[in-house]
TrEMBL record:
Residues 29-142 form the MurNAc-LAA domain. GO terms for cellular component: outer membrane-bounded periplasmic space. Gene3D superfamilies: Zn-dependent exopeptidases (3.40.630.40). It holds the Pfam family Amidase_3. Signal peptide: none annotated. GO terms for biological process: peptidoglycan catabolic process. It comes from Sedimentibacter saalensis. This is N-acetylmuramoyl-L-alanine amidase.
Length: 148
């Protein structure tokens, strides 16, 4: 869904995966570092043993491109407030994700909602909310990129 928004309105999207078949982190990092990319936005769904945990959260690296990545994370975070999913926390650093740590580009990780929470999961399954999430991530990127 996000790829459709970004591709139609702005440019090229390189997907690290388009199915449930995973790639190891070394492969993803190498693909990102060997591509001519301006920035990385990795989009995920969160999970927790605490089934009451819910909401979106955006992370950025603390080791490189911190100010640029922080600005991108902040814009995306502010746009996700326009979805039906509550905010779980403010943008913060996360040093346990390879795509944030080992890539050469500004990067953010968007955790859209908790699959382990029944309310969040219902929203994630909704085509309307999927579109809303994708559109607001796109708008956040656009506002960050163009400075408005």
């Amino acid at each position: 869904m996000f790829k459709a928004y970004y591709y139609v309105y702005s440019g090229t999207v390189i997907m690290s995966r388009t199915s449930d078949i995973t790639k190891d982190m070394d492969t993803r990092v190498a693909e990102a570092n060997n591509s001519n990319i301006d920035f990385i936005v990795t989009i995920h769904c969160n999970s927790s043993t605490n089934t009451s945990a819910r909401g979106y959260q955006v992370f950025y690296p603390s080791t490189h491109d911190v100010s640029i990545s922080t600005a991108l994370a902040t814009k995306i975070n502010s746009r996700l407030a326009f979805t039906s999913i509550p905010k779980f926390g403010s943008p913060t650093t996360h040093d346990g994700i390879g795509l944030l740590l080992y890539t050469k580009s500004p990067a953010v990780l968007v955790e859209t909602a908790f699959m382990s929470n029944s309310q969040d999961l219902a929203l994630l399954k909704s085509p309307t909310e999927q579109s809303n999430i994708a559109n607001n991530i796109y708008i956040g990127i656009r506002q960050w990129w163009w400075g408005n």
